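C-alpha cells as discussed.
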C-alpha cells in the first residue's frame, strides 16, 4: 500500500492516476473497490481495463474489493472507456469502473469511475470520500453481507451497432483511411467495424500491446504523428485517424497528412448534427469559441458555453438537452451516447460528411481555419499562476471590450481574443489565442502574450 502522500497524489479531480506500484498498487486497488461499494452503495457494477500490462492485476484486486462488499461485478475485460460508459447506462448498472491511464507514460495506471447513468464521480460527489477510506481504512461490510458474484459480459456487438446508428452506411463512399491505434485498444474496434464499412483501412500499430513498442499512444505529441503522416502521403489516403490508449479521444489528419486542430472538428461535428436535427443545442468550452459559435448559428443551432472539463460539459448537456458537446482537446460528447465521450463516433460522422458533400477533409476545414485562425493550446510553467494572470490582466483588460470568467479569463478585443487558464493540478498556464480572419494578428498577439507570461 503506497504511503498517504502517494495515495493522495493519485486521486485527481475526476479520476485516479499514478505510478504503479509507487502511487497505485494491488492493495490500494482492492481498497478502492471496497470504498466504492461503501460510498456509492451499488448492487451491480461493470468493470473493464485497458491494454497496460498492470491493468489485469489491478482490475482483479478492484473486483475482489467489490465482491467482498457484496457487489455483483459484470466484467467486460479488455475494452475501451466508452464501452464502460455505454454498458453502465444501457444496462442499468449502478456504477462502472475502467482501469486505465489513457495517454500517460507506461509506468502509470489509474481508474475512471462513474455512477448510475454513467455520470462522472469526482471529488465533489464521492471521489474524496473514496480517497479518505482508501487512506484511513475501508469501512468493513456488515458481518452477514454475502459476497457478490462475478459474471463476464460481452456488449461489443450492441456497441458496434450503436456506433453505426449515427451514420447512413448506404451514403458512404469507398474511402482510403489510415488508422493508428498506437497499440492501444482502438484497433479492436477498427477490426470490428471494418467488415461493415466500404472503406480500405490501412492499419498502423493496430494490435493491443501494453509494451508500447512505438511509445505510449498520445497523438497530441507531434513526434507521435510522423508515422501516420508519412503513411497518408505514401498511400494517397483520404484521411487519417489516431487515438489515445483507451480511445475516448480521436485525432484527425487530412488527405495531405495535416493534423487538424480539435477546435475545428468541434465545429464540423456541430454542423453534422445540425444538418440532421436543426435547432439543436451545442455545448462548447471557453478556450476557443468564435468558429464554433459562428458555425452553430449559421446552421440554425444554439451555442451554449460551459466550463472546460468532462463533468462540466456532461452536466451542461443534461441541463439543456444538448445533442452534442465538444472540447478542443479531442473530447466529443453525445446525447444519445448517455451524454458521454466517444473516440469512435466523431470520425464516423466526418467520413459521412466527406462522402455526402464530395469535399475532402481539408476542403471541409480550410474555410473555417481561414475565418478563425488559432494558436492551439500553449502551456507555460510559471512560479505562480495567480501572479501571471494578474500581470496579463493589468496589461490587457482595459483594452478589452468584453471579459468572461467562465474558465480562467477570456478577453475579447473585437478582432482577436484569448483565454488564459491555470491547470488544476500543476503550476501551468494554458493559453489559447484566435483572431477573425487575420493569422498575422493571431501570431503576433500569441508571441506578445507568450513573452509576457515567460518573463
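Sequence:
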Amino acid at each position: 500500500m503506497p504511503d498517504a502522500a502517494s495515495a493522495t497524489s493519485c486521486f485527481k479531480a475526476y479520476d485516479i492516476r499514478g505510478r504503479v506500484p509507487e502511487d497505485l498498487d494491488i492493495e490500494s486497488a482492492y481498497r478502492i473497490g471496497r470504498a466504492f461499494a461503501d460510498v456509492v452503495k451499488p448492487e451491480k457494477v461493470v468493470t473493464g481495463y485497458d491494454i497496460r500490462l498492470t491493468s489485469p492485476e489491478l482490475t482483479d484486486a478492484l473486483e475482489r474489493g467489490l465482491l467482498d462488499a457484496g457487489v455483483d461485478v459484470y466484467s467486460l475485460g479488455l475494452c475501451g472507456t466508452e464501452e464502460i460508459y455505454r454498458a453502465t447506462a444501457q444496462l442499468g448498472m449502478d456504477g462502472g469502473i475502467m482501469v486505465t491511464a489513457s495517454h500517460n507514460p507506461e509506468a502509470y495506471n489509474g481508474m475512471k469511475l462513474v455512477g448510475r447513468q454513467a455520470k462522472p464521480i469526482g471529488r465533489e460527489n464521492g471521489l474524496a470520500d473514496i480517497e479518505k477510506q482508501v487512506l484511513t481504512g475501508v469501512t468493513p461490510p456488515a458481518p452477514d453481507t454475502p459476497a457478490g458474484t462475478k459474471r463476464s459480459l460481452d456488449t461489443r456487438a450492441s456497441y458496434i451497432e450503436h456506433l453505426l446508428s449515427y451514420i447512413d452506411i448506404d451514403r458512404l463512399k469507398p474511402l482510403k483511411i489510415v488508422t493508428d491505434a498506437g497499440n492501444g485498444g482502438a484497433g479492436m474496434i477498427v477490426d470490428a467495424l471494418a467488415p461493415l464499412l466500404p472503406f480500405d483501412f490501412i492499419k498502423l500499430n493496430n494490435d493491443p500491446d501494453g509494451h508500447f513498442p512505438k511509445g505510449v499512444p498520445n497523438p497530441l505529441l507531434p513526434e507521435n504523428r510522423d508515422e501516420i503522416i508519412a503513411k497518408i502521403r505514401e498511400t494517397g489516403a483520404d484521411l487519417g485517424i489516431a487515438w489515445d490508449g483507451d480511445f475516448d479521444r480521436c485525432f484527425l489528419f487530412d488527405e495531405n497528412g495535416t493534423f487538424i486542430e480539435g477546435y475545428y472538428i468541434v465545429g464540423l461535428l456541430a454542423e453534422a448534427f445540425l444538418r440532421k436535427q436543426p435547432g439543436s443545442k451545442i455545448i462548447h468550452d471557453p478556450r476557443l469559441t468564435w468558429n464554433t459559435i459562428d458555425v452553430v448559428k449559421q446552421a440554425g443551432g444554439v451555442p451554449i458555453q460551459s466550463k472546460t472539463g468532462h463533468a462540466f460539459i456532461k452536466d451542461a448537456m443534461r441541463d439543456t438537452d444538448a445533442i452534442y458537446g465538444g472540447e478542443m482537446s479531442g473530447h466529443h460528447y453525445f446525447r444519445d451516447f448517455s451524454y458521454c465521450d466517444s473516440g469512435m463516433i466523431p470520425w464516423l460522422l466526418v467520413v459521412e460528411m466527406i462522402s455526402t458533400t464530395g469535399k475532402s477533409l481539408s476542403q471541409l476545414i480550410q474555410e473555417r481555419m481561414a475565418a478563425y485562425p488559432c494558436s492551439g493550446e500553449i502551456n507555460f510553467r510559471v512560479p505562480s499562476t495567480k501572479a501571471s494572470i494578474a500581470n496579463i490582466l493589468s496589461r490587457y483588460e482595459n483594452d478589452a471590450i468584453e471579459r468572461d470568467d467562465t474558465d480562467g479569463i477570456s478577453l475579447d478585443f473585437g478582432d482577436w481574443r484569448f483565454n488564459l487558464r491555470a491547470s488544476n493540478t500543476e503550476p501551468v498556464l494554458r493559453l489559447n489565442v484566435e483572431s477573425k480572419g487575420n493569422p498575422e494578428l493571431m501570431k503576433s498577439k500569441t508571441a506578445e502574450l507568450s513573452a509576457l507570461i515567460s518573463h
